[in-house]
């Protein structure tokens, strides 16, 4: 099993003046500990709940990923996940391509249908009904994959029309950057995974085997080899989480068919202990 570090909480001691240096050190420490992926949320406000109120610190995702690319050497970098309504599809494809080129081929695209209505309404971001967001998600996947192809023909869909899908320079990772679709919706999300994605991402829990069985059915329906899709999951820790607790969750995920888990932390005033905990469990779950 691989472990990814999902950085979802930036409210650390020292505040904004210390944030850049602390984030860079956090990423380097994670890479040195054997973490293979680092991801960030694509949000503009904190999410509320256990992660903290909307007003807590949140960094823009693609600026942050570019910063992390300059301070790491081997980890894969992507969002977990970009809301489809946040950016025009061609701009998103260009952002991921630029990250891939500048990181030496380490970028990915994590994407989903978006859900945070309060954030969208607060910042004036269009937030259409769920059915339309899924339509836009599928067209965005098609546009991104076309822009990572050598053909620069136009694209005409229900929601987007592009006259020329020119994308130069192309991504270093071929045929395209790593592509993940987040979410466990059985009728639409997992169908899109089967049709377009390199990976799914699910919350860990007792429903994982069922979700993967549904994904297998979608693969059979579209003629996709189920084994070619990476099965990833996500779980959270806080200062009360013990090594044994985390190992138990990870082993359960592995038994259910998950091969990579992204771990996010909450309520840590300093992120150093997060890496220490992950480094301590890695030998047990590899």
Concise overview:
The protein is an alpha/beta fold.
- Major sheet summary line: 9 strands, parallel
Q: Tell me the structural class.
A: alpha/beta
Query: At the third CATH level, what is the topology name?
Result: TIM Barrel
Mean pLDDT: 97
Strand order of the largest sheet: 3-2-1-11-10-9-8-5-4
Rg result: 18 Å
**Strand tally, please?**
11
Give the N-to-C terminal Cα separation. Answer: 5 Å
Q: Number of helix segments?
A: 9
The best one-word shape is globular
**CATH architecture annotation name:** Alpha-Beta Barrel
Question: Number of domains in the coordinates?
Answer: 1
Q: Which runs of at least 5 residues are low in confidence (pLDDT < 50)?
A: none
Fourth-tier CATH superfamily name: Luciferase-like domain
Give an overview of the whole structure.
The chain is an alpha/beta fold. The protein has a single domain, classed as TIM Barrel, CATH 3.20.20.30. 42% of the residues lie in helices and 17% in strands. The chain contains nine helices and eleven strands. The protein has helices at residues 15-33, 61-71, 89-102, 117-123, 130-147, 189-196, 208-222, 243-256, 272-285, and strands spanning 2-7, 37-40, 76-79, 82-83, 108-112, 155-156, 161-162, 178-182, 199-203, 230-237, 260-265. The strands form two sheets. A nine-stranded parallel β-sheet has the order 3-2-1-11-10-9-8-5-4. Strands 6-7 form a two-stranded antiparallel sheet. β4 (82-83), α3 (89-102) and β5 (108-112) form a beta-alpha-beta unit. α1 runs parallel beside α9, α3 packs across α5 (130-147) and α6 packs across α7 (208-222). It is globular. The model has no long low-confidence stretch (mean pLDDT 97).
